[in-house]
Amino acid sequence: MADACTAALFTNEGALEGEFGLNPEIFGIEPNRPVMHQVVTAQLAAARSGTASTKTRAEVRGGGRKPWRQKGLGRARQGSIRAPHFVGGGVAFGPHPRSYAQRTPKKMKRLALRSALSARVAEGNVKVVQTFDWPEPKTKRARAFLEAVDAGRKVLMVLGRNDRIPERSFRNLRGVAIVEPSQLTTYDVLWADTLVFTTDTVGSVGGQQGYDVTESDFVEDTGGES
User: Fold this and answer.
1) Domains of the chain
2) Contact in structure between 134 and 165 (CB atoms under 8 Å)
3) pTM given for the model
4) What is the pLDDT of residue 206?
5) Which alpha helices (DSSP H) does 47-155 contain, by range?
6) Is the CB of residue 117 less than 8 Å from the CB of residue 189?
């Protein structure tokens, strides 16, 4: 995948400058689809609120009296009108609050992220811009840039903490998400049609030291609490 280790380089106005060399260990590996699937599944599962709750027959109000006598009426015996088969009764095997979080090893998340980035590079959907040295935030200018680089419908802008002006320029555009390099996840990469890095942020993605568990991973470590 040596040919896949370069991305188109643009100016901040969207003019093509040439090609930008990428780290083959991050952007040029063979994508591991099973690992990507497992990590994305874990991220989406842990994002679930898990607050659905139903009441059992023991928790529903009423039903303490036997509705009719045991024998002699020709009807089936019943002990409570709050049994699950009665209207207003408790729910059998219904959902209760729980955590859907899955434990995912850091190595697996790093591999999944590198696989997703490599897949996007191989498709030609990773673009690098030199520097957004715009004097002031302008959404119109940001829209013109995306049109010039043919960014597609869903765009992920990977910006640094100091890129406040471009962040304010892009954040109001529909279909554009903004993330810092340390917060980038496999789901982010696979969600976007096009990834746009700056020359500063493209070098700090997917490294051993630069990728830690963050809130954007959606993955929680559930301890021994019961």
Assistant:
1) 2-49+103-217 (3.40.1370.10), 54-94 (no CATH)
2) yes
3) 0.77
4) 66
5) 106-122, 139-148
6) yes
